[in-house]
Amino acid sequence: MNDFAIFWAPRILAGFGLFVAALFLFIIGRRLDLQRREKIFTARYKMIEQEIVAVLYTTDEKAIARIAVKYRTWPDVLTSVLVNLIRIVGGEEKIILKTIFALTLRDDLIIDLESGNYRRRLTATRLLGMFADPANVPALLRRLRDKPTIQFAAVNSIAGFPDDRVLDFVFRAFEADPKPNIHHFTDIVSKHGQACECYIREALRKPLSEEKIGILIEMTGLIPARGLYPDIIGFAAHQDKEVRIKVARALGRLLIPDSFEVLAALAEDPAWEVEAQAVRSLGRLNNQDALSVLARGLHSLSWHVRNNSKDALLDMGAVGIRKLREVSDTTQDQFAADMAEMGLEEAEGLRSA
Amino acid sequence: MIPILNTVFDLVSNGILLYFFAINFLYAVFILLSVIGIIRHNTLLKYVTLNDMFAQPMIKPVSVIAPAHNEEATVVDNVRSLLGLEYPVYEIIIVNDGSSDQTLERLIQAFHFKKTKRVFRRVIPTKPVRGIYLSPIAPKLVLVDKENGRKADALNAGLNVARYPLFCAIDCDSVIDRDALLKMARPFHEDPEQTVGVGGVVRLSNDCIIKNGQVEKVNMPKSWLARIQIVEYLRAFLGSRLGLSKIGSLLIISGAFGMFRKDVVMQCGGYDHKAIGEDMELVVRLTRRLREQKSKFRIKFIPDTLCWTEGPESWKILKSQRNRWQRGLIQVLQAHRNMLFNPRFGVTGLFALPFYFVFEMLSPLIELFGYLILVYFIATDGLNSPFAIKLFFLAIVAGMFLSLSAIVLEEYAEKRFPRFRDVLILFASGLAENLGYRQFIAYVRAKAFLDVMKGKQGWGTMQRKGFSTAKKS
Predict the structure, then answer these.
(1) Which of A44-53, B4-13, B279-288 is the least confident region?
(2) pTM score, two decimals?
(3) Residue B110 resides in a domain
(4) Is A190 in contact with B386 (Cβ distance < 8 A)?
(5) How many domains, chain B?
(6) Which of A120, A264, B141, B148 could disulfide-link to A112, CB 3.0 to 4.6 Å?
(7) Residue B270 burial (C-beta neighbours within 10 Å; 0-12, 13-18, 19+)
(8) What are the residues whose beta carbons fall under 8 Å from the beta carbon of A331, sequence distance 6 or more?
(9) In this complex, which of B44, B400, B424 lies closest to A119 when CB atoms are compared?
(10) Which domain holds residue B394?
(11) A122 Cα to chain B: minimum distance (Å)
């Protein structure tokens, strides 16, 4: 055996053996440490929870301040208690929790919102969304340009503020954003509902990009803001296909009887995507004059138009089903017949369900 | 002549040692990256609940596509477990891929499926679809009965029928955690523009207690073969794939459970029905296409266990499974060889594919070659050779180090084995893995090269005990 084998090999093997033992001990040690920490956490959690629950049903401001002073040195436990409680309480109790939050954690979190540390920014965004007031919204809106996970948290936080002042910030940010994310803004707006109507109207009157107009029209349908019907109808003849699709979709959600003519015109659009959306919306409108348009849709070259026409006829109930049967029995077009038969079968399924 | 031969021999020996050093070094780096990834993942989920997703107004519905081929023993239980998944809106598409057993009949009987005249767009060509069935008692279920193709063909048939913007490809014989769809879909909602695929950790369900289609208690399998595979899976998923995803080099999302954006996959033409490793092939092709289009995209890996699958407990089946995986890898790398070292494909071309080529595809050949030289040295010099000792440390001891590190990663990730006895068994499995098992797998994988040259295409069979015969309470 050479020197290396004689001298080093046993030592390396012994070292490895020690390493294995150390790893195992590390796992045991870590588990014990975690258990110990969990015990301490649980004890503190119960203590804080008891005291906070006790003040939730009093208006003793001094008691609230006392809790804040007492537990601000245990921010993790306090945060957990507050987060868990705010999910289950409402009204006045929520305000008390927000007060404790403001006295203990808020200031640090506002600083964290601009921190270079990703985790801190994310935690701050989430917690401020749960506890803070609308004054923090501009700072949260800045997080819409952060990393995706933080953007998502910011959207949820902003959407959660039940205050109309927030919308002013949101729409200003929307207009200023060179490339707004449709998901983010529609999520926020759909949670605020009808309160957004005037902001959308105002924005639609501004010279915005086609992409932004499309998002605004989408928002109109999502709310749905029927009062915006006159504002969006003009876009039905827009040169951009995406805008026309969104108008067709929004009209299918607003369900304004007067929109029939517009939708019927869109159902003859040269772009199949617009046509498909228009026939779907026509079905929801439930106007019997749409039957012929939808029957024609069953013969379209596009599968999507045929499929949506079938769904639209099903939406129209008995008259739509009669039309499907008529097409199924009389047409020579195999594609239309297949689609109509599938519709009839679905109708049968719906009835039996 | 002999001095020249000796020099060549020395060069080759040193090359092999260098190779082992490099492979272990890279895996150690991935493990470090994984530690960071796991810690970060755990902190990022602080103060949120998955149920928040139910409140999202724009939640993306998911089509779960489960191909089934000759799975009469388990298919009904598995479909029942899929019906219990938590997600606001989803459909389950079971694709009976020309089973020759009672798979179709069992499904029809259990869920009262009725044949429909449902019309669908055949965007991706597949083997003929014989019928589409709907269940009046479980409206989420769609059963597609088609002629036998491969798994990829069945997935494509499911894709043609799928209605929703996200799809989740699963193995019908796997157990999916109830909240798996919520966890998988989260990245698609956080970053809807860029996320195109998400994968998660797959674990072995051998000897676990499964109740109502869910893993209720994680047990250590009785079979040492399964135990070793547990460590192997931990190293592959937690140690390697998570680390690779951190540097944008993830090229495999397990076919047992992966979620994708349907529009992007459809644009790529769906799964390659000729591919043996259709899961990896899809991810490589997606990456290729998106890089060619200069699109920004993300393929994410989340270190949560989402799916449980039964690992082989016989050497014969294990051999067939690993042979297939290796053939799949060779086929994918061969098909996309022009991406190798091609700067046009960014990190994929310059690192990910070369890594898979050098350290995954070629590893069994180099490893076996190293062992052959080792045998030669021992035969001629006994244990006098420094090469033998260095190889022992670099191939065996370093391998053990990586396996044990993966067990530590599991401690940070989920701690699914709470008993110290089980941790000890895992340690023993991690050590044993490198003493015989790994060499056997290297041999099997090396043999796959011969099978590829012979043009072998088959999948081999995977006999499963099924959950009904697995320990069940």
Answers:
(1) B4-13
(2) 0.86
(3) no
(4) no
(5) 1
(6) A120
(7) buried
(8) A298, A299, A337, A340
(9) B44
(10) 1-48+174-473
(11) 7
